[in-house]
Amino acid sequence: MFAAVIQACFCGALLAQIDESPLKLEPVVAFADLKWSGWQAETEDGKAAPLRPILLTHAGDGSNRMFVPQQQGIIHVFKQDSKETSVFLDMSNKVAYIDKENEEGLLGLAFHPKFKTNGEFFVYYTTQEESHTTVVSRFKVSKENPNQADPASEEVLMSVNHPYWNHKGGTICFGPDGYLYIAIGDGGAGNDPHGNGQNLQTLLGKVLRIDVDHKDGKLEYAIPKDNPFIGRFANKQLIARPEIYAYGIRNIWRMSFDRATGQLWAADVGQNLWEEINLITKGGNYGWNLRESKHEFAPNSTGSGPGLVDPIFEYNHDIGKSITGGHVYRGKKFPGLVGHYLYADYVSGRIWALKYDEKKKAVLANHPIPYEGAALPVISFGEDEAGEVYFMIVSPTGRGIYTFQNAAK
Predict the structure, then answer these.
(1) In the structure, what pLDDT confidence band is assigned to residue 220 with cuts at 50, 70 and 90?
(2) What is the span of the domain harbouring residue 199?
(3) Mean pLDDT along residues 113-133
(4) In this predicted model, what pLDDT tens digit does every residue of 37-47 receive, in sequence order?
């Protein structure tokens, strides 16, 4: 079945051109004995409260610390040899999260490229102050303790109202240009009922790009001068938000920059039939809801056409139903994995490593990474400072972070 999908995805390309051989790697629990400070597997009234590690990242400051936000609002910090995490920041009194609306919560964390000197980091979360509203905020680290943030330092940069609880996107990350990139979903429900993906007057369904080191007028940030939609007016009315970097997005669930090439990779979750992987470019229109991946999407029914950027890869819902984006591997533990994009499917629990040749504009390989245990519903990926890759699952035991090792067989 997967072979047939590959042929369909690449317009008749010979199957032999795409290497689908399984990698001799296997997932393994990382930090198996790590205690999560303040976390309990059950609430006071006896209800299960699984750990939801929504991300793993680093500060880029040479400390080799790892930072893991819980979706409920607590950011943990620890080192490789730690026995217990420290609470870097507790935002649980600000973050809106409930299990039945589990696409909300604390969803994104990014450290300023100059964090070592300015102590600034940024978070993306849904706020309790207003229903279905996401916030991008700046915080600063405590002057007294590098393993604690200053909760009073919050500066809200941006608030975005969403009509529904799902499709919040949630990745924030700094590009090699020093600007902050923000992935925001189309506003939720199904079919993009408000047409947000193609509407340049809303921030929903977009990848945004802002300058957090300066301010423009009444904004708490500045617009980079080369953003693609600056100055779009008609009859003295704004027809495009200048923060927009790319559009036509349904719900990017994790995007990341390749630390070697600077390319921005994004996995956009599909709706009816297709999951897709995109290379995000300035001004690009990725088609939602005119199409789903490269396919017609009723009632709009516009397939490939002029001005729409095609995904570099897609798979249909016979393979999986909710793509989780990862990272291009640039670590040292697995030389054969270098340059491969790691991604997974939350529903099927499958994990792959995709090799793409940017010069040839072609996928060369899509290697499965086998796992003999129960399926792993991967909710996120992350990198440590050395470029080693981890992935996260919801865990009732606290063993929610995995990495890879060479396969025993």
Answers:
(1) very high
(2) 2-406
(3) 98
(4) 999 999 888 88
- Report the chain's mean pLDDT, rounded to a whole number: 94
Which element (helix H / strand E) includes 237? strand 237-238
196: buried, middle or exposed (CB in 10 Å: 19+, 13-18, 0-12)? buried
CATH of the domain at 117: 2.120.10.30
Nearest to 55 by CA among 170, 165, 166: 170
The pLDDT-based confidence of 2 (bands split at 50, 70, 90) is very low
∠ Cα 63 252 276 (to 5°): 115
Owner of token pair 């689908």? 20
Cβ contact 71:35 at 8 Å? no
Read off the tokens for 155: 């500066």
Residue 170's nearest CA partner among 239, 242, 241, 95 is 95
Is the preceding peptide bond at 289 cis, omega within 30 degrees of 0?
A: yes
Share of the chain above pLDDT 70, in %: 94
Contacts of 266 (CB under 8 A, 6+ apart): 183, 207, 249, 252, 254, 255, 277, 278, 279, 280, 325
Contacts (Cβ under 8 Å, ≥6 apart) of 299:
none
Burial of 19 (0-12, 13-18, 19+ CB in 10 A): exposed
> What is the count of structural domains for the chain?
1
Which residues have CB under 8 Å from 32's CB, separation 6+? 399
Side-chain half-sphere CA neighbours of 31 within 13 A: 25
209, 181 contact by CB (below 8 A): yes
**298-328: b or e for each residue (b if 16 or more CB lie within 10 Å)?**
eebeeeeeeebbbbbbbbbbebbbbbbbbbb
3-state SS assignment for residue 6: helix
Rounded Cα–Cα distance for residues 322 and 334 (Å): 27
What is the rounded distance in angstroms from the CA atom of residue 3 to the CA atom of residue 311? 18
